[in-house]
Specification:
Largest sheet: none
Order of helices and strands: HHHHHHHHH
CATH topology: Arp2/3 complex 21 kDa subunit ARPC3
Protein name: ABC transporter permease
Shape: globular
Number of domains: 1
CATH architecture: Orthogonal Bundle
Keywords: Membrane, Transmembrane, Transmembrane helix
Length: about 260
């Protein structure tokens, strides 16, 4: 189905906004009347898959080339295989290398779809579906999309500078991925009364401070740092060759719009 820009743009932004709201539900819960606060987490868990379905439906409907579909399917299979092999090994997400390079080569829309479908397929292969799956779909989709939004570089050393830029982005994306994935789950992960607990009645600053301390202890200093290191190494070693190979498979100008 072909969507007009007037319809597609609000749906796309609306889907991302719904997803961001679902991730950040602990920030909104205190503003909800006390008698309804217990329902906020369940609303957030419902918003994430709804937003994922909306965006995939809209964006997939805008894919206008069989070549794009074939390439998306091939890279999804590769990414899912990489993720299945590497998942659970100390926070390593080798699939970030593929998402960043594909997003850079083919644009934000392709990178987002690739991230979503890689999580969907790898979760199917592993039987690992759960309330976290839609959140992972969005987080990985945003990793791929972000690479497609980075500025174009020109000059005699553009290729080297591009890999350095992607490596820097890979570090930021690795830590951001850990933060957003921690955020929605944080209130469930820690009981009340601890210094890193979520407190519904606390101020925004107090809860953000507790959350950052929780993330630092549980993932930022360990899992996320290892993810950042392996992403940088993967981009430095395989980035130039893989990026060149991806760009040789040129896509029609209107293949994704």
């Amino acid at each position: 189905m072909k969507w007009s820009p007037r319809v597609q743009t609000p749906l796309v932004w609306g889907g991302h906004l719904l997803a961001a709201t679902a991730f950040a539900w602990p920030l909104f819960a205190p503003a909800v009347p006390t008698e309804a606060q217990g329902a906020v987490p369940f609303v957030a868990l419902a918003l994430a898959p709804l937003a994922a379905v909306t965006l995939v439906f809209v964006l997939d409907g805008s894919v206008r080339s069989a070549k794009v579909l074939a390439l998306l399917g091939t890279l999804t299979a590769v990414g899912a295989a990489v993720r299945v092999v590497g998942t659970g090994v100390g926070g390593i997400e080798a699939v970030f290398v593929l998402l960043i390079l594909a997003g850079r080569a083919y644009g934000a829309r392709f990178g987002f779809l690739l991230g979503v479908f890689v999580i969907l397929l790898s979760s199917t292969l592993q039987g690992g579906f759960g309330p976290w799956t839609p959140f992972q779909m969005f987080a990985c989709g945003w990793v791929g999309a972000g690479a497609g939004l980075l500025p174009r570089l020109r000059g005699p050393r553009a290729k080297l500078a591009e890999i350095a830029m992607l490596a820097g982005y890979g570090v930021l994306a690795s830590y951001a991925f850990g933060l957003v994935m921690n955020f929605w789950y944080w209130p469930f992960a820690v009981g009340t009364g601890a210094g890193i607990s979520y407190e519904p009645g606390a101020t925004l600053g107090e809860n953000l401070g507790s959350f950052l301390l929780y993330s630092l202890i549980t993932s930022t200093a360990s899992w996320d740092t290892l993810r950042a290191i392996t992403t940088v190494i993967g981009l430095a070693v395989a980035g130039p060759a893989v990026l060149a190979a991806l760009r040789r498979a040129k896509l029609p100008r209107d293949a994704l719009r």
